[in-house]
């Protein structure tokens, strides 16, 4: 009997090919859409975590309140001790300290006179230690455009766009003019080791990356840092884990009103990312829901038309001796088979296109010239484990639901009524 | 019940809701059919022929009265039991043939046997026999679209007969056929009736069919107005 029904299914293209094509189209679009949303959200989270927020970030309470102004006079002190303590208490996490600062980068000519200068957004990270995680965090090796990574103190990286703007090349000197954490003027000479392009507009506009020891020396911030960033195991942001770590850390300082006490914020709690993440996650859910709904309607309609077309067949089958339950179930099995085949092919196509976009990406750099969001210029899809099964939701669920709903009409009819309709 | 009586209809009433009221399609029908009859319910459109056939075929249920087919009370059958009765004991022939278009002649005739869970070998033999009865052994691989109307109806007869049912119900089986094909079909059914002792009950107002009947039950406005036996020897 199953073989008999399969034969009919295969031979009747309006029952097999058309619904399968509809399911394939819907499923592949669902998988692609999911991959795109996941990719954009994931990129946003990763970019922010790597360049700015970490998965958790420790600052003084006072610094945290005015973080945008990079108030290094409110920086954390005794950073080495805090880091040692954190690494002992949270051994699975990666902890790094950073200094953010602003300043003017001055490029001298052969007479040591100012040739050109420009405002720099400084980021001091551990560039020189052997096992510094920061090279990987910031993806510096891949971001290098010209020159090389700093190998000794006094060497810096600047963004390639900034270098072009200043007319400077690797190997040339640059002088940083800034202020120390105590408000005095800071001036330090560096050699530009290389230029970088992160593909993140705020960083590519005017970034200057310096080793943290050099920055501590220049800004008079011995054993001090603007912030300490923590990264969870596997470098994947997990809001619940981050919140738990932050809660435990902050509990120690609960009740204290000292504005120089450290405070730990999760990625979600920084830069209004909570509302963005919620919105993105909500949007993702809504889009998938709308898609499932649209697919349901399309497939319901297809099922209904198919069902109406098959009144004759249903009537004959009932007259010959199949009971309504058997007919109804066979239609459900048929739609489940179509759903599975369509979902498998659709998922494969969706994954294939997603993979291409994951590798190639779409460059939106020209549209984000003045963006301050830590978002890559090149947006990509991201294939996650969910992408392998999410398409089955509309593909299988909607198809079966559509057939179930349309089939009820047939199932509920009086047998004689069906008979009469097929005679007509 | 007499042994030879396989269908007993007692004070059958069938009403359908129409608007706010009810339309009485069958109004107090009393009939019996014996094994091997070649009978027809004749009458104008709307006289209740198809409704009567539907109830005998367990496709519908009586509003009142009792219909017993092969000792099973139609009104008391569950959907499953009614399906089993149709599957095991009844064959249907429709006005519009109602063959399944994506299946071959062989597969269309084979279908009822699949429901009876017969083995492949038994099915093959039974289908070949049935196609031989209707003279379509050379068309096993054809699809319905490749057949003439007469051939399609012969396939439908083979499908109805393949499981050798006790009763075949034929609703206007010649309505879509020309005179020659109608006679061929009716001769085939008459032959099967004689050879296999299958009871044939027709619903028809076609004179070509009526001429072949051994018993004519005249229906008007849901009532039996005349029930006559035809002596075919004369």
**Helix and strand pattern of chain A:** HHEHEHEEHHEEHEEHEHEEHEHHHEEHH
Residues in β-strands, percent of chain A: 15-25%
Spatial strand arrangement across the major sheet of chain B: 6-7-8-3-9-10
CATH superfamily of chain B: P-loop containing nucleotide triphosphate hydrolases
Gyration radius of chain B (Cα, Å) is: 18 Å
CA radius of gyration of chain A: 30 Å
Structural class label of chain B? alpha/beta
Overall morphology of chain B: globular
CATH topology (level 3) name of chain B: Rossmann fold
* Whole-number count of domains of chain B: 1
Largest interface: A-B, 27 and 33 residues
Walk me through the structure.
The complex is a heterodimer of chains A (424) and B (234). With 424 residues, chain A is α+β, with helices and mostly antiparallel strands. Chain A contains 15 helices and 14 strands. Chain A folds into 2 domains: 2-47 and 275-423, no CATH class; 56-231, no CATH class. Chain A has helices at residues 2-11, 17-53, 61-65, 79-89, 134-137, 140-143, 160-166, 201-206, 212-218, 239-251, 273-309, 311-320, 324-360, 392-412, 415-423, and strands at residues 56-60, 76-77, 94-108, 114-125, 144-147, 155-159, 173-179, 185-196, 207-211, 224-225, 227-231, 262-266, 362-363, 378-379. Chain A is elongated, with a radius of gyration of 30 Å. Chain B is an alpha/beta fold. Chain B has a single domain (39-58, 85-229), classed as Rossmann fold (3-Layer(aba) Sandwich), CATH 3.40.50. In chain B, α4 (120-133) packs across α5 and α5 (149-161) packs parallel to α6 (179-196). Chains A and B meet through α1, α12, α13 and α15 of A and α1, α2 and α3 of B.
Q: What is shown here, in short?
A:
The complex is a heterodimer of chains A (424) and B (234). Chain A is an alpha+beta fold.
Give the helices and strands, then pairings.
The complex is a heterodimer of chains A (424) and B (234).
Chain A: H1 2-11, H2 17-53, E1 56-60, H3 61-65, E2 76-77, H4 79-89, E3 94-108, E4 114-125, H5 134-137, H6 140-143, E5 144-147, E6 155-159, H7 160-166, E7 173-179, E8 185-196, H8 201-206, E9 207-211, H9 212-218, E10 224-225, E11 227-231, H10 239-251, E12 262-266, H11 273-309, H12 311-320, H13 324-360, E13 362-363, E14 378-379, H14 392-412, H15 415-423
Chain B: E1 5-18, E2 21-34, E3 38-42, H1 49-56, E4 64-69, E5 72-73, H2 79-89, E6 90-93, H3 105-115, H4 120-133, H5 149-161, E7 167-171, H6 179-196, E8 199-204, H7 207-210, E9 215-220, E10 223-229
Parallel strand pairs in B: 3-8, 3-9, 6-7, 7-8
Antiparallel strand pairs in B: 1-2, 1-4, 4-5, 9-10
